[in-house]
């Protein structure tokens, strides 16, 4: 089957133009600028008034499978991704069991092939004693190694400097770090508990997981990368001070910002409570403003979600009891384009940060751009104001901190490898994504 997307505004590689596009055998066969494509027998999608972009690539999601499937599954969360115009997800290793061995990584790959509606890949997790596993991963099929330098559980918390140094020195591919100083967090929790009881209100979350905890750990990661030559990608930067550690267009050390930290600030705890409790914490409005500015100057290399579903009952409590994390993948692209409408950044910059940059940074082959010969991973969006309602949610957990928020863009269709995966109201059930490949020099 061939598909023609006709008369869309194509937003790609810094350009915006009206054009048409032919999809054939899963790839983009032809792009016609300022013109039309006619092919008898092809399915035609009239896209006038809509904007066509490459499908977004989210380098930071938690699909919860295996072991935590009461929260989410690969099927449900890739359904949410497709509904949000996200065509590739890179999944984190803190499942049950943890993805810290090649055997468990292979098990996840098999699950992905059976259940994922969009393209997928899985990180291997670092521990205190799995360096041999890390050194034997297939770097052409693994996006990187996830290293929790704080804020994790069990053996995936690695905070001894010599152990960290060995991992940094010998990891054969990109290291993605979660940076928070655990000792400081524990000390700040004790101080807050002394003042506010065993389970302090969530409003104190950014005081416990504070800016200093983030900066100290991120500074250590950057120093180790400089000393060892490791390829470092720091997840979910949340503070203005951390941004001073990054330089625009640095090919060795890069930073990720997450949508929640670009949308919310401390003031939102009063309204949303634990629905926006995440690690690292949503912090000051000044931090949010600094992150937004860094989207434009290159210190932030890409934008992701840290999509992390929990049952709403697990979000009950305060700083100690309530689970940290929120589902965001369904609304990340419309939310960022809405920020562009507000003048925070340009629409082309959104596409750069959410489509092009992840493909480039991870060396994802044949995706992330609208180019002839590339995989037809595409999102068609309409600029229209609409309000997020509970009925539209696709994540298994059934809630979102975005409920009630007005967005300026809606995903009309999503194609994954040339197949229609989202038709504007529902995911096409039998569509499955592919495991993505990574270039060796990424």
In short:
By secondary structure, the protein is an alpha/beta fold. Helices cover 29% and strands 22% of the residues.
- Strand proportion: 15-25%
CATH class category of the largest domain: Alpha Beta
Name given to the CATH homologous superfamily of the largest domain: Metal-dependent hydrolases
Tell me the number of helical segments per DSSP (H or I, 4 or more residues long). 13
Q: Give me the count of strands.
A: 17
CATH architecture of the largest domain: Alpha-Beta Barrel
Mean pLDDT: 96
**Fraction of helical residues:** 25-40%
Distance between the termini: 34 Å
Describe the SSE topology.
Layout: E1 2-12, E2 15-24, E3 27-33, E4 43-46, E5 51-54, E6 56-61, H1 74-83, E7 86-91, H2 102-115, E8 119-122, E9 124-125, H3 131-135, E10 145-148, H4 161-170, E11 175-178, H5 182-196, H6 205-208, H7 211-228, E12 232-234, H8 240-243, E13 253-258, H9 259-263, H10 269-272, H11 285-297, E14 302-304, H12 332-341, H13 347-362, E15 378-387, E16 406-416, E17 419-422
Parallel strand pairs: 1-4, 1-5, 6-7, 7-8, 9-10, 10-11, 11-12, 12-13, 13-14
Antiparallel strand pairs: 1-2, 2-3, 5-15, 15-16, 16-17
Helix pairs in contact: 12-13
What are its keywords?
442 residues, alpha/beta, Urease, subunit C, domain 1, TIM Barrel, globular
